[in-house]
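INFO  loader      accepted 1 record
INFO  loader      residues=97
INFO  predictor   begin
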Amino acid sequence: MTEFTGERAKPYGASITDLVLASEGSYTSTFSAVYWVWHEPAFRSMEHREGSVFTLELAQRLLDHFTVLNGTTYEFIYSVLDPQLKKVHLFVKEVDL
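INFO  predictor   done
INFO  writer      dumping tokens
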């Protein structure tokens, strides 16, 4: 895990920065995961959103390199924790394995 700086995250950095800074919501008592899928030149919101995510479940997800959602395989590119809104932004791109 390293500090995120948009410059080091090319070609994804600007899109990630814009989405995280624009993130809205209200405070909740549990974390939620928000997925963003890469469609060059930017990430777009993915329909797959999870409500409450338990800490262990979230840690497991962050340690995996790939995930399958709705029958499609995705590679994790970046993850960003927003502690104020208790959101974890998961940035992925579709891959063929």
